[in-house]
Amino acid sequence: MTDASQLPGAMPNAYQPGKGDLEPAELALAERRRRLLGPSYRLFYETPVHLVRGEGVWLYDPAGNAYLDTYNNVASVGHCHPHVVAATARQSAIFSSHTRYLHDGVLSYAEKLLSYFPPELSHVMFTCTGSEANDLAFRIATAHTGGTGFIVTENAYHGVTSAIAAMSPSLGRGVDLGTHVRTIPAPDPLRLPGDLGAAFAAGVQAAIDDLVRRGIKPAALIVDTVFSSDGVFTDPLGFLAPAVAAIRGAGGLFIADEVQPGFGRTGGAMWGFERHGVLPDMVSLGKPMGNGYPVAGLVLQPRVIEAFGAKARYFNTFGGNAVAAATAMAVMEVIENEGLMQNAAKVGAAFRAGLEALATRNPALGPIRAAGLFLGAEIVADGNPLLPDAARTARVVNHMRSARVLISSTGPRGNVLKIRPPLVFSLANVDHFLDRLEKALNA
Length: 443
What we know:
Blueprint: H1 24-37, E1 53-55, E2 58-60, E3 66-69, H2 82-92, H3 104-114, E4 123-127, H4 130-145, E5 149-153, H5 162-165, E6 181-184, H6 196-213, E7 218-224, H7 241-249, E8 253-257, E9 282-285, E10 296-300, H8 302-311, H9 322-337, H10 340-361, E11 365-371, E12 374-379, H11 390-402, E13 405-406, E14 408-410, E15 416-419, H12 427-442
Parallel strand pairs: 3-13, 5-6, 5-7, 7-8, 8-9
Antiparallel strand pairs: 1-2, 2-3, 4-10, 9-10, 11-12, 12-15, 14-15
């Protein structure tokens, strides 16, 4: 059997068939999954977790063991939140169909959602997934600009459609990048010293120049606004602005991918782009929007849809259907009523401080980067922030899994702990996490 770690696009924290410490029942389940779903799917951890129930920040296996979820940003307001579940069930029992009928649910939700955006971003188009939202942004950008060139960071992930996989280098060497795509260094302050904004913008400008030299007109710069797949880069505030100016100077658009950082996760604002004082042309949304129900969307300035709208109709059977709208509205109500953006700011600050304190006691824990409840912590060798230690990172992740705390790793060097718990995470949950992480680092 092929070693999964040698497959193109293999995850550094993936289960390898025949390895791990699975009980017979779970081993049979993993083999059944492989046989039925095929070889492209991956499972997390050397020993995968079998989960059957979720509640708040906790996930449970068949034996009733509780796992602290500090990774899953899909259930952003907590697993199986009763208000969201009730809204989904209530609308499912009344009406659920495609989206070519008049229905006020989607309009009420659109008004609620757009109220959190600058007034220039006044249109929203609904999809089912973030990949679809970014695919739609790709189509609109090419229609608006007449260009085809796209600029992404070196380890970006934006989705799995054919067009968007071609601009998602984190999918691995088995997925070719498009000839119209240019990659630029991530805004890593360790590797782009000096003025980070100027250095990142210089990368964008170099990509623009190369596209133009080859007769390719730039269409857009698209970034995840916390650069989560690149290793989580959040500071200094405002460093994105020069890069946005560069792409606009070349006649291109700026697309803010908020699928991961959006909906209050960064604490100080609803959207990651707000931290940088920039106004995107389009903003893609997904994952946390429905707390587990498949709903996503693209928010945009009306002027960028004019050329696309004049030539093409847009229809999505399930995007923005009545159940999706009711579910997404309930998620927004929970964020508002439970003060979850404020909680992300308060608990996230304590989380960052706790990690930084732990780093003073353990040299393997390197630079900490965070915005609210989106955190990245580097694992390094010999206390040197420029010596990434991917092997130790994998051991830490799997030790945490054994201690029933779920995280993963990210970044091109596989050495950044990626931490993004549900927004209902508490200070007690932070203490629980830090205790388990210290033991993992010392193990």
